[in-house]
Amino acid sequence: MSTVTDREGVARLTRVARPTESSGLMPPPRPALKRERPGAALPPQTGVARLTPKAPAIEQAAKAFRQVMGRFATGVTVITTIERDTVHGMTANGFLSVSLRPPLVLVSLGRCKMNEMLPRSGRYGISVLSQAQQHFAAHFAAQKRSPVEPTFTWQNGLPLLEGAIAHLVCRVVDVHRAGDHVLWIGEVEYIDHRDDEPLLFYTGRFGTMREISDRAQAEQTRSSQHVDRR
Fold this sequence. Notes:
Elements: E1 9-14, E2 48-53, H1 56-69, E3 74-75, E4 77-83, E5 86-92, E6 95-99, E7 104-109, H2 113-121, E8 123-128, H3 134-140, E9 152-155, E10 158-161, E11 166-178, E12 181-193, E13 200-202, E14 205-207, H4 209-229
């Protein structure tokens, strides 16, 4: 059985028993419950909050789901918006096209600052990164500061990362909450692109097509060696 080490869970209220007097081993009989009048105030919920940990099976399922979905290689984007002269950007691979007529795209965001800003700004930009911009992917994912300061080009009042292989400017037209993420659907107002090798995201890491292929081959070799030893 897996050991639960985190303190996540549901706080359940356990009533504290009131001390009673008893001369024997058996507790005294409980007083009859009073029938409450309609609209009468309920007694306060006093007691002890006990934390029920999440089931290990749920955490294991979430981990397995992440590993499986990590085998779906995607491109890498930097989502940008601006509010009161403050530019904010974040790395995201949860991006896809939704419709051609009208042109709609979708970005899926978890708990982040961008989710707080988009209801106010109402617009966002998308920069699809090239393989030469891997340092920016880590930078906007708050993993490692880029040795090169990011610079932006402006279109329709929104900042877009210079050097990207594709740019889109979008106006938010619909929002949907889905589990622990929020889906932001945007109508495309501006597009541009150039040809270059894209940066990819695979099994939780950024890389080029060649790097991903080499890594997958190495992992397959290690797995085969492990089976042979058995």
